[in-house]
Amino acid sequence: MATRHDTAALPLEEGGAAPGRPPADSVPDDKEQRRRARLSRRWQRDMRWSPYAFVSPFFLLFLAFGLFPLVYTGWASLHTVELTDPTDMQWAGMRNYTRIFDDDFFWNAAKNTLTIGIISTVPQLAMAMGLAHILNYKLRASTFYRVVMLAPYATSIAAASLVFVLLFGRDYGMINWALHFVGVDAIDWQNDKWPSQIAVSSIVIWRWTGYNALIYLAAMQAIPQDLYESAALDGASRWKQFLHVTLPSLRPTILFTVVVSTIGASQVFGEPLLFDANKGASGGAEHQFQTLGLYLYEQGWVNMHLGRASAIAWTMFLILIVIGIVNYVISRRLRASS
Amino acid sequence: MTTTLTKPAADAGSPPPKRVRRPKSARAGGQMHAGPIAYVILALFTIGSLLPLVWTAIAASRDNQRLAQTPPPFWFGGNLFHNLDIAWNDANLGEAFINTTFVAGVSALTIVFLSTIAGFAFAKLRFRGRGAMMLIVIGTMMVPPQLSVIPLYMMVAKLDWTDQLQAVILPSLVSAFGVFFMRQYLIQALPDEIIEAARVDGASSWRVVWHVVFPAARPAMAVLGMLMFVQTWNDFLWPFLVLTQNGNPTVQVAVAQLGRGYTPDQSLIMAGALLGTLPLLIVFAIFGKQIVGGIMQGAVKG
């Protein structure tokens, strides 16, 4: 619609500048007329092209550092490329991809990414929702709580991971020390599969819960108050109001956070890398918390197979596209049903 | 807030108090006062959010032996400045701070400038392909940066930019979020009439940007700048790949390397983590309210 309006408007402006049309008050001399024509030409050029000038830096940067690398990753994934000489590319066809399908480490990393993604995202968003609900009450010092909830977001992955390694220490960590009061024996948070995945997820949860709570809170504050009033007049309890007024109104926001968290979960890298600094890229002694992002790094920068790492990257991309489509279909269904 | 408080009281004049109370209790969603349980839960979340940070400082103020004993320390020891001093020198943190401040500052300022002009074009100017271009911008937000890391690394290797700061700065300038954020803000905050008035006065598009758009966008630009500064400051994967400990590390790269020794000194690692986090925590303590407001503003319109 915008473009149509645009094409319709242009001839009108030209007509305004055309010499055939008599001016309203006085007849301008030749010079004045030429000056006006020149100004109006410059004006038109300005109106027409400056929008493109304004958006072009973004798109140029995106082409150079976003789109080109993405496409080139696909190209590199069809080659054998080694980190030692990245310019030497040997055609490999689909070999990197077929290799992935037989690669136990890839599937292990894919499973870990999925489980760590679920363990970190579901409780995180649920807690954020509850927290937002409480922050939406009238509170004393409400700004204080909001800023405090955001403090983990200001903490870097590197710093947070290093601290959590100590907190989750098997022998001297604070968490095992606290658990021994309730009769739990020391848990090996680094070497056992599920404890290690929970520990890595907890770093993600800690950093992002407050941020998501603020997003939910903002959406909650935009819900019109009379929706609650009429629900209450119908005799809905507070819990029912939350279920039937708050949650449906937050649907787009929830979908937004789910998409963002899914993308974030698919790329978890720094937390598992630093959670066992000695094992580094292998993600624990038995790869028990190696994520896809970490496996990509291991293939590319430890084993130096950039071609294979590219194939992993593109497989991740395709998986994300599938998730995106599923998400889109679900959200359309939800919208249609409401 | 005060208006909602006084409203029931004003109505209370004629009808019996019972009828007033009912709609008041109906305000469960928005305006209810928090009960003690809510405060207890908030206190728990506050402790959960702050404990790892405070404990970082506690651990940094002890020594390695104390951290290898079984009730972990709960209060500060006397070793803080000693550890901070060693961590600062060992991890080359002085240089890392200068590097990171430069990288995050340049990135944030550039992103804010480019996002504001692009956001203004998308919000207020009509041009062919606007809708399609905006869709592309939103689409790029969905593509994880990790996927582009390999060719970017090849580019950097080819240009001999390893260990150089521009290798970190340039790729960080692509911020679809920034464009989207500024567009959403300017749609609301910049009335069409002001632009029209400037146009009637003969202002070119660039003059409009300088004299109308930038002043109107200033609050959102400040918020976006802070968010981008935090993001670039904390960025880990890409700087970790192209910068090394001995050549121009950022703070995150330097701090991550602290844990890599054969017998890692935990209190030193914590001192490094503390130093790496402290500047941003100070920024949050000062501008926390604005940052919170900015995130919430971006959320509603997004």
UniProtKB/TrEMBL annotation, chain A:
Membrane spanning stretches: 49-72, 114-135, 147-169, 311-330
GO cellular component: plasma membrane
Subcellular location: Cell membrane
Source organism of the structure: Streptomyces griseorubiginosus
The protein, known as: ABC transporter permease
A GO biological process held by the record: transmembrane transport
Bilayer disposition of the protein: Multi-pass membrane protein
Positions of the ABC transmembrane type-1 domain: 110-327
CDD domains: TM_PBP2 (cd06261)
Chief location of this protein within or outside the cell: membrane
Keywords: Cell membrane, Membrane, Transmembrane, Transmembrane helix, Transport
Family membership: Belongs to the binding-protein-dependent transport system permease family.
Signal peptide region: none
Renumbered residue ranges of the record's region Disordered: 1-36
Automatic annotation (TrEMBL), chain B:
Membrane topology qualifier: Multi-pass membrane protein
Transmembrane residue ranges: 37-58, 102-123, 135-156, 168-187, 208-230, 268-287
Chain positions covered by the region annotation Disordered: 1-30
Protein location: Cell membrane
Ranges where the ABC transmembrane type-1 domain occurs: 97-287
GO biological process: transmembrane transport
A cellular component term, taken from the record's GO annotations: plasma membrane
Pfam families: BPD_transp_1
Family statement: Belongs to the binding-protein-dependent transport system permease family.
Protein name (record): Lactose transport system permease protein LacG
Source species: Streptomyces griseorubiginosus
Gene name of the encoded protein: lacG_3
